[in-house]
Design a protein that fits this description.
The complex is a heterodimer of chains A (394) and B (143). Chain A contains 14 helices and 12 strands. In chain A, the strands form 3 sheets. A 7-stranded mixed β-sheet of chain A has the order 2-8-7-6-5-3-4, sandwiched between helices. In chain A, strands 9-10-12 form a 3-stranded antiparallel β-sheet. In chain A, α4 links the parallel β3 and β4. In chain B, β2 and β3 form a beta hairpin. The longest helix of chain B has 22 residues. With 143 residues, chain B is an alpha+beta fold. Classes of the chains: A alpha/beta (394), B alpha+beta (143). Chains A and B meet through α9, α10 and α14 of A and α1, β2, β3 and α2 of B.
Chain lengths: 394, 143
């Protein structure tokens, strides 16, 4: 199997698994219990908090454990909305290609009377700080812009956007689920007020994540029922997962540069190889993207059949095709960067990790070439394009 | 559980009757690239029997499998029998499709009927328009 879907989830690192085991096997005490057996768990919880804070340049008190990135996004946005409403500010700035954890939360707020401005992300998949500045109004209570896009991997000018928000006195949240552990992220240097991350994107366990909120930014609990997480998130902590997350994050942040050096040439070779397929195109800026992200559109084919045939050849990949999402529309990210519907259906996302090899990349290039040309051979759309009845878009 | 039945995967991996027919007696194309599925059916009709049938499909696994199965179900059948093909028969022959993929079997039925209608039109054969679904408006796109 060639696993090229690391933006969906990653394999847990051995270090992370080993960090979890003691809390699964032996130290099952509840961190909220008074006796020393429970307090041992509490110590582990706080140690994980400190180590995660250190990786992000944050203070441990600024770290709240959540069930993952989606919960963190929900809590960050809803908290900022409540804070804004109290000051009569009910306008939020975001982008058209955020993760649905952000977009759906914003839609909910819109139904409750908030105004939402979604910025254009251009064919490059990058929003400019000037556009963010221009969109901020006196009644803006929050700017929420993802650090790196989950589909096309493009990295946003977070530090500059954060500086603008700070200057204008507007809270700035970033969904950094795809970025943390892959590119340098420092909440202080990057002027971030709130940040979401998810452990399973950097070789940690699923079902756990973090919401960073700068000191002074009040969070409101989504889940009531206990005083855990300083009253910001009720429920007994998933200690084993949190310990695994801390270990995985320390490992990923420690090896950031080494991993980048390992992955980047593989990504570049994969982009070059897939660029040889006629009438295909890379989605999003080639330079300003995550080290492991490759995303292409191929004309005349549909993504789901491409994925199924790649699966038969042992390649795990993903697509923004409507058929793979269960909805009728193709990926909102590809539409946001200006890809027409018919082209967006034929997308392929391959996301690498440091565990991939040059041989796997060569095999994948061969498999994609073969499958794309096979599917085109039975596609009436491709026939029309080749016979000149329709114009090529790519 | 796998996404698709063994039957669907078999017809997807080894589609029957893929290709085009030179000088077909009827051609039908339905669907819309915007929605992500287009099916094109070519018919060769001799003595009121479907002597040969080929298809081309742009779409997902179940769209390709549905086209393949639909061509198998009508090949060698009298035109009158082919006209009775339903999306349900296609889906059942594939041992079922996931609920959100049933429109693929609808598309296959519509493509076959569009090709039969084309045959009738070309040959000036009278027919009851009620036998043919309106494939101009794809309800899937209208949503």
């Amino acid at each position: 199997m060639i696993y090229l879907d690391n933006a969906a989830t990653t394999k847990m690192s051995k270090t992370a698994v080993e960090a979890m085991l003691p809390y699964l096997e032996n130290w099952y005490g509840n961190p909220s219990s008074l006796y020393s057996f429970g307090q041992k768990s509490k110590e582990a919880l706080e140690s994980a908090r400190e180590r995660i804070a250190a990786c992000l340049g944050a203070d441990p008190k600024e770290i709240t454990f959540t069930s993952g990135g989606s919960e963190a996004d929900n809590q960050a946005i809803l908290s900022a909305a409540i804070l804004g409403e109290r000051k009569g500010k009910k306008h939020i700035v975001s982008t058209a290609f955020e993760h649905h954890a952000v977009l759906h939360t914003l839609e909910k707020l819109k139904r409750e009377g908030y105004e939402i401005t979604l910025l254009d992300v251009h064919p490059s998949g990058v929003v400019t700080p000037e556009e963010v500045a221009a969109a901020i109004r006196p009644d803006t209570c929050l700017v929420t812009i993802m650090f790196a896009n989950n589909e096309i991997g493009t990295i946003q000018p977070i530090r500059e956007i954060g500086a603008i928000c700070r200057e204008k006195g507007v809270l700035f949240h970033t969904d950094a689920v795809q970025a943390v552990g892959h590119v340098p992220v420092n909440v202080k240097e990057d002027n971030i007020d709130m940040l979401s991350l998810s452990a399973h994107k950097f070789h940690g366990p699923k079902g756990t994540g973090v919401l960073y909120a700068r000191r002074g930014v009040r969070l409101f609990s989504l889940i009531e029922g206990g005083a855990q997480e300083r009253g910001k998130r009720a429920g007994t902590e998933n200690l084993a997962a949190i310990a695994g997350m801390a270990a995985a994050l320390e490992e990923a942040c420690g090896a950031l540069e080494e991993n980048r050096r390992r992955i980047l040439p593989l990504r570049e070779r994969l982009i070059d190889g897939l660029s040889e397929i006629p009438h295909g195109a890379l989605n999003g800026d080639r330079e300003r993207r995550l080290p492991g992200n490759v995303n292409f559109c191929f004309e005349g084919i549909e993504g789901e059949s491409l994925l199924l045939l790649l699966d038969d050849r042992g390649v795990c990949a993903s697509s923004g095709s409507a058929c793979t999402s269960g909805s009728l529309d193709p990926s909102h990210v590809l539409l946001a960067i200006g890809r027409p519907h018919d082209v967006a259906h034929g997308s392929l996302r391959l996301t690498l990790s440091e565990g991939n090899t040059a041989e796997e990349i060569e095999e994948t290039i061969g498999a994609v070439k073969e499958v794309v040309s096979y599917l085109r051979s039975m596609s009436p759309v491709w026939r029309d394009l080749e016979e000149g009845k329709k114009e090529h878009l790519l | 559980m796998a996404l698709y039945s063994e039957k669907v995967m078999d017809h997807f991996r080894n589609p029957r009757n893929v290709g085009v027919l030179e000088n077909p007696d009827g051609v039908g194309e339905v669907g819309n690239a915007k929605c992500g599925d287009i099916m094109k059916i070519y018919l060769k009709i001799e003595n009121d029997v479907i002597a040969d049938v080929k298809f081309e499909t742009f779409g997902c696994g179940s769209a390709i499998a549905s086209s393949s199965m639909a061509t198998e179900l009508i090949k060698g059948q009298p035109v009158s029998e082919a006209l009775k093909l339903t999306n349900k028969a296609v889906a059942e022959a594939l041992d079922g499709l996931p609920a959100h993929k049933l429109h693929c079997s609808v598309l296959a039925e519509e493509a076959i009927k569009a090709a039969l209608k084309d045959y009738y039109d070309k040959n000036g054969i009278a027919y009851d328009p009620a036998d043919f679904p309106d494939t101009e408006d794809c309800e899937h796109c209208a949503l």
